[in-house]
Structure formats: C-alpha cells, structure tokens
Design brief:
Elements: H1 4-9, H2 11-14, H3 20-29, E1 31-35, H4 41-51, E2 55-59, H5 84-95, E3 100-104, H6 113-117, E4 122-125, H7 130-143, E5 147-153, E6 156-162, H8 171-174, H9 185-188, H10 192-211, E7 220-225, E8 230-235, H11 247-251
Parallel strand pairs: 1-2, 1-4, 2-3, 4-5
Antiparallel strand pairs: 5-6, 6-7, 7-8
Helix pairs in contact: 4-5, 4-10
C-alpha cells in the first residue's frame, strides 16, 4: 500500500479516475530498464522517477560532455566528465527517494543485455546506435518484454511501441541489418526540444502501459515533424522471414 508521504507526493495522480490508488500501486511495483541517458533518456527517466516507478535501471557507459548540455536536461556544468549513469542515479534519488534507482555504468551488448532485460517489466530504448537498437530489440523479443523505442535527429522524431505478445512487426522488420549508421546527432545535429518531446512520450506510454490507461500505439511508428508540427503514423507489418519475430524464429 501507499505510505502517507506517497499519498501526498502522488496526489495529482490519485485524483485521476484512470490512475487512482490502484494505478499508483502498479507504478510502484513496476520495473523499467532505460538504455541510453542522453537527450531521450534524460527527460524520460525524470518523469518515470517523478511518477513513482518502483525500480529504474539506468544504463549508459558514457560521461557527460559540455556538448550534451544543449539537450540532455538531466545534467549541468557540475556533471561534466562524470558518469551519466551515476549522475542520473544521484539526481533521481534527490527527485524521488521513494524510487529504487540502479546505475548500470557499462556498455550493454548482445552478450549481457538479456541479464538486464530479464529483470524488468518494460524497456526504453533511448540510444542513438543502430547496432545496440537491433540487439535490444532481439533481447526484448527473446524475453517477451515490451519495448518503447525513441529516436530524434535534426527536426524529426520517431516513437515506436513494440510488444512481443502482439501480432505486429519488430524493429528488425522495420530496419534490416543492412541499414548502417548514416546520420546521427553528432554529424547532423538535432534541436533539443524534439529529443525532449520523444523522451517524454516514451515516459507517457510507459505510465499508460502500467496503469492500463488509454491505448498504447503498439506496432505503429509515429513520425514527428517539428518544423510543421505534424504527426504521421504507419503500421509495422511482421516479416515472416524475420529471425527475431517471424515464422523462421518460431520454427527455430
């Protein structure tokens, strides 16, 4: 049950018919792995911690650089050259000491992703690397864990919600392994609020998922054009030959 301090802290949630005490308890019992604590992960983890997600696993092997501060709102000048994971853990504990925050200050890959994915109820992909995205997608499908993927570059953002239990395509169906690294924030730039928008939406869909509020757009790629302030969506069909989610994998 909720403590007296939690009733006060989450009072605005408790006033919502869609959340209430039952929904807040579900958030308290939930665990989330956030991979990447940059422009997407920064706002996402702040809102998840503030919402009362019971356990947050924060994974990032990088250190804070001054060029990050234009969009990575979790950090400040005092954070420079410090571990992103450890800095994020300390700041989120200050924000909400009711939440358990675990810093994973190491590089995740195909060999160890399963160890972390298996521990949580939901995963947020807040990375900017195609290889780790593919590996994270594969790990989530292997363990049957829902995955919220965010991406942003220039004035464009993307949001993709994937659930291995549902009949839609996965990240591998959408972007094959032949799609190499072409553009990223480092070589093409990004406007800060676009990254923040997508990160906050990842947190929103996570909260909706745990509380059963509304509809999470599973299997639909949401495309945001910040210049024209417009959204477009498209369904991601399952590729029967996909080795991650298709018939070939099921037969194997």
């Amino acid at each position: 049950m909720l403590s007296d301090s939690e009733f006060i802290r989450y009072s605005r949630h408790l006033l919502l018919e869609e959340v209430g005490e039952e929904g807040q308890l579900k958030l308290k019992q939930a665990s989330v792995l956030v991979v990447g604590l940059g422009g997407l992960g920064s706002p996402a983890v702040q809102y998840l911690a503030a919402a009362g997600i019971g356990t947050l696993w924060l994974a990032d092997f990088d250190q804070v650089d001054v060029s990050n501060l234009q969009r990575q709102t979790l950090y400040d000048m005092d954070s420079l050259q410090h571990s992103k994971a450890e800095t994020a853990r300390a700041k989120l504990q200050q924000l909400n000491p009711e939440v358990e925050v675990i810093a994973v200050n190491q590089k995740l890959d195909a060999d160890n992703l399963g160890d972390f994915v298996s521990e949580v109820d939901l995963v947020l992909d807040c990375t900017d690397n195609i290889l780790i995205r593919q590996q994270l997608n594969a790990a989530c499908y292997a363990w049957g864990k829902p995955l919220l993927v965010g991406a942003a570059i220039r004035f464009e953002g993307q949001l993709l919600a994937l659930d291995p239990a549902r009949d839609h395509g996965c990240y591998r169906c959408l972007y094959g392994p032949d799609i190499g690294e072409r553009l990223n924030c480092s070589n093409s730039g990004v406007i800060g609020p676009v990254v923040g928008t997508i990160g906050m939406l990842q947190a929103l869909e996570a909260i909706k998922f745990f509380t059963g509020t509304g509809t999470v757009p599973w299997g639909e790629l949401k495309l945001f054009d910040a210049k024209n302030h417009s959204w477009h969506g498209l369904r991601v069909p399952k590729d029967p030959a996909c080795p991650v989610c298709g018939v070939k994998r099921e037969e194997t």
